[in-house]
Amino acid sequence: MPTVAERPDQNIYARQLMSFNPQFRIDTSNPAMGASGTDVYKIYAATQDTQSSISLSNSGRLSVKNDYSIEIVAGYKSDGKNEDIVIAGLSGNVDVVSTHGTVRIKAANIILSADEDIMLKAGRNITLKSGSGRTLIQGNKVDVKGSTGTLIQSLGEDFTNKVFSDSFVGDDVIKGLFGGLVGTVIDAVL
Amino acid sequence: MIDESLLKSNFLGRDGFRWWIGQIAPIDAWKSQAEGGGWSYRYKVRIIGYHPYNVTDLSNEDLPWAQVLLPTTAGTGAANCSTGVQLQPSDVVFGFFLDGDNAQIPVIMGAFGRTSEVSKLPYSNPFVPFTGNTDYIPKQPATIKSSENSEQTKNSAETPPNLPPEIAEKKDPENPADSQANGERITLASPENDAILGIKNEVKNLLKKIRTFLKTAQNYLSKVSQEIRKAADSIVRYVNDFVGQSFNFLINGNGKFPGLVGLLKKGLDLLYKQVYSAVLAATANPAAAHLAGVAAQTAMVGPVKLLEDAIACVAGAVIDSLKDIVSDLLYSVVENVERFVSCAADQFIGTLVNTIIDTIEGGLSTVLGGLEKLLQFFSDFSVGNILRTASEILKSSGISFDCNQSKGGLQGMAKEWVVGAGEAFVASENYQNIMEVINLKNVGQNLNEIAECFTGAIENASVAVVNIFGGGSAGTGATGIPIFGSYTQDSNGTVRASVIGVQVTDGGSGYTYPPFVEIVDDAGQGYGATARALINDMGQVTSVYIISEGENYTPSDITEYSVSEVIVEQPGSGYEDGDIVVDNRGNEYKTQIVNGSIYQVEPLNNVVQSLPVLTVKSQTGGGAVLRPILSDPNFTGEIQKVVDCVT
Known about the structure:
A: alpha+beta, B: 3-stranded antiparallel sheet
């Protein structure tokens, strides 16, 4: 059974701990090594089945963890147009991930503003639906790609049109004016 | 009596000061206070030399109440300033009597800290140490190690560490990780195809999670089943990408396969020629032959449209039908695999894609049957065979970029985040291995039966490696090797080490900002080593310095390393000539100070066995941050340093 070998010469002297009970403590300069280095501080709380902590590691990462939900609420008394909550990454990326659920954003208005590109990528469907107003797609260049669907069909770029593009079958037939009946008759002849 | 009262001043301190040492009685004796029925902070105390060693002569309930003297920093409660008193039953406390020799009004001034040797057993007799845990503050069973001492030792009052649960368990079974989520792999949003990475991470997370379940727990099987269902749902969502790519490839093809569009076009042409020839031969009338050929092509409109409609609907049906299959695959993995290493992942994904192809083939068989007259010309046509030879279904770029789209902002980003550890390196996919599995039609589902893929637990991890990644869209090629130090041994005598430096073996090129540095082994045995890279104006990695040395890594052959460079990360201010830089071994480094800031520190090239900590000895200055860079004095590789382009 492999065991864990802690490094020698740990600075126990610098550690300052305030443990209030088995459920809450503030630990500072604990020399025990963690996955991001040792902790500068850790505020740790626990219930029978929940662990919760806020910690700063020596690698510079502040980490907030909780086994169940985290609630951030602000602005109950703010004016309507104030910034109630600001989450800002000043140099790098801001990642929002829900590994098994849905990222939901709801507001009176939503602005997705990118100085460069906006990329919407879905494994299955993308739905753009406007209510009483319009849906506008505007750009210097607007491309549509696909094999089927009303937009593709109206452009004559659908699968059936592509297949018949070099054939003697006319567009009217492809659009269904004669296809079924003629098809059945000819099939019987063949 | 009269004499005595005449001699006494009845004023604290004037008649002498009566010190005492005593023990706080069991909480049952002062329950009313514990339940809020008393006043102030008070405890029943049994005082050595004043109170008997048994409860027969003086019960715990009849002991005097002792008040607590608060430190000046605690607050008395006035103006909302207060701090709770933390004394517990069995604590040995020290104080004095407010009423001198009457000894009825004790005051507690302080307490003696407990050592690990103090008994944690329940109360037995007066003055015998016992546990401080009570019904009011019970032991916390699972989430924190029970502790009843306050010492300057490594094992005193341990706090749950930021480690993956399995490592924390090995380190100390009673001290769990600060979160069971530690080590969980999160696939970050990416413009590229992330289905393979997402599926791998899903399986790794599943295995990690199931390992934390107690096998003897009554609900073990239902919890496992619940987690497998959750993972299967997620994997099936990732499979959308494969299915979409499969249909895209099937319709549009690639350089080798013309796609169904090309194939059916050719089929229509051949059908026309076939009918034209037959009718011409029978009638000798080219016009009639042409009309018959056209009619034959026209007859295919309906079946082609049916195929078009099927394309839109079969994809969803394929995905929905995969949940049970994925669950079965996951059960197989859970039963047989300890570590989801890359070969096992290749087999899992290969098997999964094979199933998808079979399902697509089955879903399209009816509508393709209606196109028999067009497909008759291609005797070897088979949806399954076509898809099994097309790696395009695995390695699509997700979204195609247009000519004026800058990829820079969307590339060179971390693709994976490990909870508690940070950005993780993701190796390029080896599609060839997966394609080989896909081509093995009869691949089994028991992953351990596949030869040359060891997925069991390993005794000792590999020597740690350094992964340098990210750093901008064009950054590539930087490599390094870890420098080990602070050697120690585990309980089996196996040598383990910390990572005290990184020898950059190739500076790479094209880095627009410092890339991520990851130090890992193949089993997650070592942990905690973090480092940062420095780049020069030419986009090369010049050095890597250690932020945290970590521990428990399997070291390479022990070699000597020296401080070859000192990076002045922050120059500080207020320093004076004569201030010197020293390390924690007492070595002095030549230091150049310009305008009160540290400008340069010359390395000593002295051999070190642990990471030196550099500080500036100064009475006036502060704020300098110095990072020692270690390297092998015998390293012969060429690392490109900063080049002065002006001259």
